Amino acid sequence: MDVQGRGRADGIDPADQWVLNPNTGEYELRLTPSAPDSAVPGPRRPAPRDPAPRANAPRGTGRTPSSAASAGRRGRRPVPKKPKASRAKKVLLWTGGTMAFVLVATAGGAYFYLKHLEGNVATTDIGDAGKSGFSKDEAFNILIIGTDKRTGDGNEGYGDQGSVGHADTNILLHVSKDRTNATALSIPRDLIVDIPDCPTKQADGTESVVPGQQGVRFNRSLGESGRDPGCTMRTVKETTGISVDHFMMADFNAVKTLTTAVDGVTVCLEHAVKDKQSKLDLPAGESKVEGEQALAFVRTRHSFGNEGDLDRIKVQQQFLGSLMRKMSSGDTLTSPTKLLKLAEAATKALTVDSAIGKVGTLKDMALELKKVPTKNISFTTVPVLDNPAETIKATVVVNEAKGPQLFDLIKNDVSLTAVKQQKKKEAAAVAARLKGTKSAAADVRVRILNGGAAGGSAQAELSYLQNDEGVLKSENAGNADAALAKTTLEYAPDQADQARRLAAIMGLSGSALKPGKSVTNSQGLPAMTLTLGKDFKGAGIKLNSSAAANVDVDKSTADKVQCAG
């Protein structure tokens, strides 16, 4: 029997059975004496004695009146302090409940209750479209899909009742390897793409390959002809070159139930909106929305900007940022009632791939996501242009002048915000490489290789170093043997002073400096080796500047309040 079953049998709200343990500062599940206490997995501590009952004492402590009175005769203990808000400042929740397990795990959720939540989650076998498991030591990409399928209570009146569930809202969430940052890339549903052939497992268990299609809307990668979320993942890879590891899919009910569970989310409008299509009716300024109004807010497009899907995407990003801030607020994270409501609501609206459908995997993923600060969660959208093949503009295509650069940043785990990429121990170890004397620029000897930067980068950087920085003893050595994600400078011990000078000129971090061997330049003299990696953004652009300054895309961060207009 699960937690809810036990609680209902005793006439007790399950949320009231979560009690703060003063020894750990975390909430634990306390059941009636007929059932064992279930705490955070790990060494068990003796249960703290309860004070005598009072008129205003909370319900559901799991103690009988006689045992409570007995505990009271032994003396009253101090009222435990609430856990500090800093415990949960980094908690993250995305629409569709992808982070609901953070809330339960952080609050000390019991294993069997997580198993109950696992039973709420539907899974889909996507074959080799994604990874077979989840690793806590790697960067990972999750495709979050919001479908337009009109299932669930109260969703019949939204029109298009026969929809098979297209990929209506799509966010590719990249979480960095060091967990310092994340990028949420929105993919327009009206983006023209090539959908590749897609192996699928049908509802009856049979396997088939759905033929691909060229030059169609992205949203058709799901639903049509039996296409599953694995097809959408394959389409993302085909379009951006970014491999998708896992997916999480939610329907309309996710927005309604999650916002209701947290007692509403604050949104902001530049002007009053009364939209006939979505039924959104809000004044200018800030308002709190939940349930049907929250869904109306994220579905509205005719009242914002140019009344297109791209403007609606911006509104949805603003909504998600507000939802995340609400999730990390103290009144949410210190409330067992809200935590349980969130976990229940989120998991019931969620479908994931089979590889992450187990309770242990979901918990591990949630705890990794919890590490990402909201100030370093960037929202952006695939750069697009109007489809040149259309007279009446209804669809868009990837902007080839901007899109590949953004896709490469994500593939190479580069943040769109300025973050401290090194962990403390690593930073201490490499910081020493930048300390000490520096040679004059004229004394720096370096050979430059292109190891993954744009074509012509080695020559362009050579010209900059010679003409603008006075590094005259430099030369272009062509292409490197292999591509590198990060720019590196290899030097011999007696070239450390030269390395520090070039690092200062280029903005190289201590981790980019690689003690090793020197090479012989074209004059037969020892020289350092500078290899320009995929993170190189142009001649003269310092590598320690924010990546956001080097890429031309619209973006926002989850910690900033914005108004839709």
What does this protein structure show overall?
With 565 residues, the protein is α/β, with parallel strands linked by helices. 27% of the residues lie in helices and 21% in strands. It contains 15 helices and 26 strands. The strands form eight sheets. Strands 3-16-11-4-5-6-17-26 form an eight-stranded mixed sheet, with helices on both faces. Strands 20, 21, 22, 23, 24 and 25 form a six-stranded mixed sheet that branches. A hairpin with a 6-residue loop joins strand 5 (167-175) and strand 6.
Output the keywords.
eight-stranded mixed beta sheet; alpha/beta; 565 residues
Radius of gyration: 27 Å
- Structural category is alpha/beta
Total number of strands: 26
Overall shape: elongated
Kindly state the percentage of residues in helix: 25-40%
What distance separates the N and C termini? 49 Å
Report the β-strand fraction as a percent range: 15-25%
Number of helical stretches of at least 4 residues: 15
Could you give a short account of the major beta sheet? 8 strands, mixed
Low-confidence stretches: 1-15, 31-109
Mean residue pLDDT:
76
How are the SSEs placed, and which strands pair?
Layout (H helix, E strand, L loop, with lengths): L2 H7 L8 E4 L4 E4 L35 H9 L26 H7 L4 H10 L1 E3 L15 E8 L19 E9 L6 E5 L5 E4 L2 E4 L5 E4 L2 E5 L11 H12 L5 E5 L1 H10 L3 E5 L3 E2 L6 E2 L2 E5 L1 H9 L9 H19 L2 H4 L2 H13 L1 E4 L5 H11 L7 E5 L2 E3 L9 E3 L4 H9 L12 H8 L13 E6 L6 H12 L4 E7 L8 E4 L4 H11 L6 E3 L3 E2 L5 E7 L22 E3 L8
Parallel strand pairs: 3-16, 4-11, 6-17, 20-21, 20-25, 22-23
Antiparallel strand pairs: 1-2, 4-5, 5-6, 7-10, 8-9, 11-16, 12-15, 13-14, 17-26, 18-19, 22-25, 24-25
